[in-house]
Design goal:
This protein is an alpha+beta fold and about 150 residues long. About 40% of the residues lie in helices and about 25% in strands. The protein has one domain. The model has no long low-confidence stretch (mean pLDDT about 80).
Length: about 150
Amino acid sequence: MRPSDINADRWAGGILASGCTVDGQVVDPWTVQAASAATGSPSHDLVLRVAAEVMCFELGQSGIKLTNVNTLVDFVRDDLLKQGMAARSGYLDFIRAILKPRERDGFFRRLFMAKPKVPSIAWLWVSEEDVELEDEAVVIRGKVMRMDR
């Protein structure tokens, strides 16, 4: 949902600038899962990009009011440091809702349509290395490991 005080073109640009990559390759954010600790060595690079304006708005929907982007970066960094896996899971939820929101499973959809396929988990996000602001986007860098199947 776009807030009324942000220009539609800027909002759409922010959505388009968002992304989720592993080792530089775009991945479906639903294939990444937050994990608390690695059972092996995380050797793949994860990058989550979320437009700062979009993240400020989404955090505001959760009752966290941030207006300065530098404060936003500090907040995200501290949140990941203090909350660990729970924060990683929350930021994955942001990026999933922005990039690939799941369709609502209403009565008629369940009745007349096939269940949507949910991608299997391929990556475990086990650590974060840095949070910074790049081109008006909050960029979270971390490490993931491939999920054994």
